[in-house]
Every structure is written in structure tokens, then in C-alpha cells.
Write a structure and sequence with these properties.
mainly alpha; 0% strand; 102 residues; 65% helix
Length: 102
């Protein structure tokens, strides 16, 4: 069901967009670590180092990296739902009962 040459454009786009988003997110966090997050240690306090607001821990570039990671999860979820429905349809076509995993 998920052989790349048989996957339709929409599902392939979701899979590749997920990959692109997660790779970009990881590179952003690694290459721009100082620009993405405020330096914070276990012994630091929110009142002093973050001016009393815990959201100051993440800078704008960090917010973009987190948003890309969430987008990656969303695209992957869409692809998995599509692949699951295609596999279920194929099993029903063959007359087999799909096994429910828990």
C-alpha cells in the first residue's frame, strides 16, 4: 500500500512535507540554539532569568522550529490515516477482516 511509486500525489506530498518540516526544525534547533531558546539551567528561576514569564524561554526562531515540528506531526498523521484506510480497503476487497491493534 505504501510503496512510493504507487502512492498518490497528495499522500506523497504529506509524507515529504512531514520529512521536510522535521528536518528543518531539527537543523534550526541545532544551528540556531542560542537564537531559538533562552539559556536556562535547572537552578535558574523564572522570576530572575525569564522576567517572571515562562514563555520567554522560547524565542521567535524557537517558536518557528516548534511550529514546524507540530506541522510535521500533522502531515505524518494525515499520511498514516490515508495508509491505514487504503490497507483496510485492500483487506476488505480480499475478503479478510482487518486486525485491530491495541
Amino acid at each position: 500500500v505504501t510503496e512510493l511509486q504507487h502512492v498518490p500525489v497528495f499522500a506523497r506530498f504529506c509524507l515529504l512535507a512531514s520529512l521536510g518540516c522535521v528536518v528543518t526544525s531539527c537543523y534550526m534547533v541545532q544551528l540556531f540554539q542560542e537564537d531559538a531558546f533562552t539559556e536556562y539551567q535547572l537552578t535558574s528561576t523564572i522570576e530572575v532569568q525569564l522576567n517572571g514569564d515562562w514563555t520567554n524561554l522560547v524565542k521567535p526562531i524557537g517558536q518557528i522550529a516548534i511550529a514546524l515540528f507540530v506541522a510535521s506531526l500533522a502531515f505524518l498523521f494525515i499520511f498514516i490515516r490515508w495508509a491505514t484506510s487504503q490497507a483496510r480497503r485492500l483487506l476488505e476487497k480480499k475478503g479478510e477482516e482487518p486486525e485491530v491493534l491495541q
